[in-house]
Amino acid sequence: MRCSITPILFGIFLQWLIFLPLSQAMSNGFTTIVEAGKVNCFYENIEVNRTLEMEYQVVEGGGELDITFQMISPSGALLVDDQKKTDDLHTVQADEKGVYAFCFDNSFSTLAEKTVFADLGLEHYDVDNWLSELDEDSSIEGQQLQVDSLRTTLENIKMLLEKAQGYQTYLTKKNLKSHFLVTRSGSRVFWWSLIQSITLVGVAICQVLIVKNFFGTNNTGQRI
To answer: 122 and 42 in one domain?
Structure first.
């Protein structure tokens, strides 16, 4: 009986391991441009008792790199209220089922638009729930399974995957910020070079006209 149970357990473990990166969290990394005096809101339908993790960072903008962020529950309760921050990370337990709102407010700015990178992580699977289902499975009931050892292994895998996901998010934000910095610097270099070129051409034309006018005046005086 033990030999027939082992392949079943091994197959379940492999299935959980393969689909863990897909079922562990819903990653919705995106960038949005919040115009001056405007508010951009995004919505997500979330089940009850889910853990959601919202991280954001202002990667480009005129003046100060800050934004006001608010997270609103389906009933209208204000869960998060960040006033003029550059970046932050919030972990919230969803006590209600429904549509949650995530709003970036740039209404305090009159001229400068802000580019914001945001990442929403929503956990969809729990190790404890999976192990509870495993304990209740009638096909392996009564067998001496190493549940504690399996629990530790799965929790370690989950922790490593969360670290990898956090590192990927950090690299994404860093690359976006570098991209916007290079783009903005390239635009400034282009316009500065164009102004310098126009100035040099203008100075050269003025010098030619002055020299031409000078020699033209001398020739007229000699003829008289």
So the answer is: yes
Crossing angle between the packed helical segments 2-23 and 147-223, to the nearest 10 degrees: 20
Residue ranges making up the domain that contains 191: 148-216
pTM exceeding the 0.70 threshold for the entire prediction: no
In terms of domains, do 180 and 102 share one? no
Q: Are residues 103 and 52 in the same domain?
A: yes
Pair (103, 155) in one structural domain:
no
CA distance 152 to 148: 6
Q: Where are the beta strands (DSSP E) in 50-182?
A: 51-61, 67-72, 78-85, 87-93, 98-105, 114-122
- Element containing residue 43 per DSSP (H, E): strand 39-46
Regions of the chain where pLDDT drops below 50: 1-10, 12, 14-27, 138, 141-142, 144, 224
CA 56 to CA 207: how far, in whole Å? 55
Number of domains in the chain: 2
- For 73-108, the pLDDT digits (tens) are 999 999 999 999 988 888 888 889 999 999 999 999
CATH number for the domain spanning 113: value is 2.60.120.680
Hey, is 178 helix, strand or coil?
A: helix
Alpha-carbon distance of 222 to 220, in angstroms, equals: 6
